[in-house]
Amino acid sequence: MTRKNGSPVLLLPLLLATLFWALGHPLGRIILQTVHPFQLSTMTLAVGFLCVLLYLAAARRLPLLARMSGRDIAGSLALGVIGFAAYQILTFSALALIPASMNAVLVSSNVVLIAILSAIFLKEKIRWQRAAGILLAFAGVILVTFNRGFALDGSIDLLGCAFSLLAALSFAVYTILGKRLVERNDPLIVTSLALFAGALLLGAVTAGFVGFGSLAGAGLQAWWLMVLLGVSMIGFAYPAWFETLKRLPASSASVFVYLTPVFAVILSFLILGERFSLLFYLGGALVLGGVALSSVSSRLASARK
């Protein structure tokens, strides 16, 4: 069977990766009923790293690590602090406080934050599409956060919303700092090093502040869900994403980024029974529209270079 750009054979891994990333929001919410956010973050990263390591070994790509410069290896490890350790702690801490659907939509604003940081640090021009996308997404974030009304009466957990937005910011910083690293090296090797550093740091932080003793009483459901998230969200999703990007234009693959919050809202409704006011769905649509406009602007800028 001949595989062509856009064929269902190539799109299926991307669709599954997007679905697994979305699934992490409602399942994470369930796990956090008996597990601390630090413990969940450590477990998912550790399981995910082992899965990616096994994939690289099976694909005989581990020797590529020897071709990396010491500086790039150190840079990849440092990225793990921002892109995985900080992101996992922030997003799971948010899930402990706010609904999974809300967290998914707020975290998806990372694409817009990447556009802003690119303009500041990479000196990329802000075209009208990108400016419109930033404004749309900002308006959407406000509506999603205050979907129950514009009143600070305790019905809105602003700390949880702040954790979600900081998670989006940490991923955006990770993307900007890692841009040149993944251009010079195998993206999955860079990711595996970042995963290793993130898991190691999180393990030390968790051991020092929370401990792992309480995991023994977390229950079988929490354990198998943690393993499932590590295998699916990281162990499968990252190799699937990077391998498919080799065969598909980045512009085609980026469309699937928009599906993550959509899937997360649907799955959170089906699994957790989450329901929101019209303001939430309007805000979610504005965030997705802003993300789409920002991505279009980036692709147009790349095409003109």
> Number of folding domains?
1
- The run of helices and strands is HHHHHHHHHHHH
Structural class: mainly alpha
Helix count equals 12
Provide the residue-averaged pLDDT.
86
Distance between the termini: 35 Å
What integer value in Å does the Rg equal? Answer: 19 Å
- Largest sheet, if any? none
Shape: globular
* Percentage of residues in helical conformation: over 70%
Task: Provide the β-strand percentage band.
Answer: under 5%
Number of strands: 0
User: Low-confidence runs (pLDDT<50, min 5 residues)?
Assistant: none
Description:
The protein is mainly alpha-helical. It has one domain. It has 12 helices and no strands. Helix 2 (37-58) packs across helix 3 (70-95), helix 2 (37-58) crosses helix 9 (220-245) and helix 5 (110-121) packs across helix 7 (158-184). The two termini are 35 Å apart.
What is the element layout, followed by pairings?
Blueprint: H1 8-31, H2 37-58, H3 70-95, H4 100-107, H5 110-121, H6 128-145, H7 158-184, H8 187-209, H9 220-245, H10 250-254, H11 259-272, H12 278-303
Helix pairs in contact: 1-4, 1-9, 1-11, 2-3, 2-8, 2-9, 3-7, 3-8, 4-7, 4-11, 5-6, 5-7, 5-12, 6-12
How would you concisely characterize the structure shown here?
The protein has about 300 residues and is mainly α. Helix content is about 75%, strand content about 0%. It contains 12 helices and no strands.
What tags apply to this protein structure?
305 residues; mainly alpha; 0% strand; globular
